[in-house]
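Figure 3 (text version): structure tokens given as input.
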């Protein structure tokens, strides 16, 4: 959804009073790469984390964020969803977004399955409750606030921004919290979406 007015978007986290505006107007597109990590996925004592890289290609402003996965259960799919939720939540105001994930679960859920789940009261095609419905509802709200185009990339295939998001997710799974702004030369990010 494009906003009809000029708005300076920020990568601004809750409680962040600094002015880290990275987009000059609502016509700019933010590029986001997300990833989740979960050691011992499906086993006892899993440790999960999420990571995301947000970039304004027009200004070169970049935000790297990561954190530990909270709540229960701790799974890789929840980590992947949380990465997308945290990245979109970091945007101040409505934005046009190109979001790249290596999670087919997130990609298909957001682009193919979500609307059907909603029509069926958040039930799957088999009539069972959708797994991770709490996160899917949060993501659904954010997807109504932003115009998001999803892109899929194979994980661990050498895509620089995806590898960075993966590294951030691993940091989060190890208990690290990251919120780091920096600047890269426009066009320095990979040509892959």
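Below: residues designed for each position.
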């Amino acid at each position: 959804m494009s906003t009809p007015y000029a708005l300076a978007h920020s990568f601004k986290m809750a409680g962040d009073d600094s002015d880290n505006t990275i987009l000059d107007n609502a016509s700019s597109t933010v590029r986001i790469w997300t990833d989740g990590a979960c050691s011992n996925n499906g086993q006892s004592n899993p440790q999960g984390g999420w990571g995301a890289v947000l970039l304004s290609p027009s200004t070169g402003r970049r935000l790297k964020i990561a954190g530990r996965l909270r709540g229960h259960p701790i799974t890789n799919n929840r980590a992947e969803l949380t990465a997308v939720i945290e990245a979109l939540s970091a945007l101040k105001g409505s934005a046009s977004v190109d979001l790249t994930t290596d999670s087919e679960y997130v990609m298909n859920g957001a682009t193919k399955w979500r609307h059907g789940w909603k029509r069926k009261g958040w039930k799957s095609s088999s009539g069972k409750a959708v797994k991770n419905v709490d996160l899917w509802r949060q993501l659904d709200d954010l997807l109504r606030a932003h115009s998001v185009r999803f892109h899929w990339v194979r994980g661990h295939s050498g895509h620089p921004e995806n590898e960075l998001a993966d590294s951030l997710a691993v940091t989060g799974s190890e208990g690290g919290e990251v919120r780091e702004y920096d600047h890269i030369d426009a066009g320095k990010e990979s040509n892959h979406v």
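The radius of gyration is 16 Å.
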